[in-house]
Specification:
alpha+beta
Amino acid sequence: MKDEVIEEAVYKRYIIPTKRKSTKLLGLELELPIVNKEKMPVDFKIVHKVTDAFVHEFLFDEIYRDDNGDIYTAVDSKTGDSISFDCSYNTLEFSFGTEEDMNVLYGRFVTYYSFVQRLFAQHNHVLTGMGINPHHAINRNVPVVSERYRMLLHHLCSYPNYDRQMRFHHHPNFGLFSCASQIQMDVEEEKLVETLNTFTKLEPLKALIFSNSIWGEKQDILCSRDVFWRNSLHGLNRHNVDMYGLEFDSIDEILLYIQSMSLYCVERNGKYVNFAPVPLKQYFKSKEIMGEYFDGERYQHIKIHPEIKDLQYLRSFKFEDLTFRGTVEFRSVCEQPVGEIMATGAFHAGLMENLSSLTILLDEDHVIYHKGYNASELRRMFVKKELPDIFDWGAVSSFIISVLDVAKNGLKRRGLGEEAFLEPLYMRAEQLLSPARQMLNGLEQGRSVDDYIKEYGRL
């Protein structure tokens, strides 16, 4: 396949949608762990019962069922809201159709969450706001019985075939118990370069106030989702995961970066075919690719011929992810305590509205930058329990408060009264206290994980 054909396809899919004028619309995805309070695995029969009741109560009309006939996604065609299970029936996801006003989205979230939480409580189950399921070691971490999730876990479990190429963790099923809070917002072409560059530089500071997924024998990692993706098979090509390791100068550079990302699956005749990750440009220049698919009983080998429409199967897991919808999806944040669950959306929405001020603030910073470390290195330091003593942490706290002020001014400019959602972040910034660090402090003082399951699940 010729270079110009590949380049045109990538341009049409990712850049053309950004040529329209952006709106104030935003979409939220909130992934919440389900916990069995009896310290036993989540009972999937209860999950299915609650799902059926939810669909009946709220009249969600687009229903998708797994291979066993159980609902794993239901959508309200009027609002675009959906209830689904992210990889596993241990994780409930609320996704919301786009709205301008986060207060409207929050109202719908409270209605849905209260209903589901009440039903789960009748069966001694509960939802909570954590970035990792606190009972992940107890639960049955099996994927939703569907073509896509079966393929995904099979692919991630093939990491031993690549041991000579990088150091992997040994939890390929991490997607079955890790949970995120994600937001999508419109981005215009002329602001795309600035958006990716600026928000990449912001990532280390986000780690200090949003980390909420403790991991490790010594509980030394406060935001485990970084490690899970980076050191899994998704991270075999570093351009598919994590932060951008460069500062973009142009749209052309973004296009080249996308072409350097790897494909690992496509569909043929209704079946997912997965194969060794291969960079996009190399994939389209190949005459054939050897892959495998599940025939209902076992995996079979198959040769496929690349087609330009396979571009739709490119999966990026970047912290700032340019989508085919003309939006940027911010996906580096752990799920947050439910009582503060809108803080992530408000933070990003306010900063997007006030992007130029954020850019200047970060470009002129000497509190964390210009000290010999790039954004990626800083992020890796700041997700740890033990913070390095090479920074003035009082100055870092003040710097984060300055960022929050930029976000608050952006929200005021939006004019929808969303600033209240930011307030919990000021306390976190003042004390450099993420939900994960707050939980660790409490555990060291004798509180229990059960205490935090309850506290972080409270509206």
